[in-house]
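quick one before i forget lol
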Amino acid sequence: MAETQVETETTSVNNGIAIAPKRLSPEQFKTRFEQLLPLITQEWTHLDREELMATDGDLDRVVDIIAAATDHTKTLIQAQLAELHSLSLTWERREQQQTALQQTPSQAPSQSSNQSPNKDKDNPDEEHPPSPSIDDVLDLLERRTEQLVERVKADVLPEAKSQAKRNLGASILTALGIGFLLGLFVGGSGGDRK
């Protein structure tokens, strides 16, 4: 249980770039479980909806069910659930903003209630939320790319620097060889020059 009770803010920020996703608390998950259930079943289509409903929104039990059905770690599943939670909140905010923009100050509440019976006709399949927009997908890819860059900077770069320091001669020869080859490709062999 202790592994799911983590802070809701990013765990580390480097130059304004978050290098770890926001984590989902059990309380947040339980309060939005009904809204997240369609997203969870859409993400993991082979899961039994009734089995998920039986958890009553218990984050640890849902993570256990997903982990048993997939080859993913519990940490990865929790990160994916946090991402679904974030997407759900983003979609809800956008819907609220669109509703607020569509309703002009001159509209009376009775006029807006006349539009509500058509809600079922506009969205016949309430169980499946709308697909994420291209902006959402691009934002997600951008965040993941930033995370990978930060991991490379934190893990690979120090190791490469230490290897270069240990093998200084080989590093210099490698750099000279790469420079020579790049010079040949970019500048040509020099025999063509007048």
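fyi The two ends are 75 Å apart (CA to CA).
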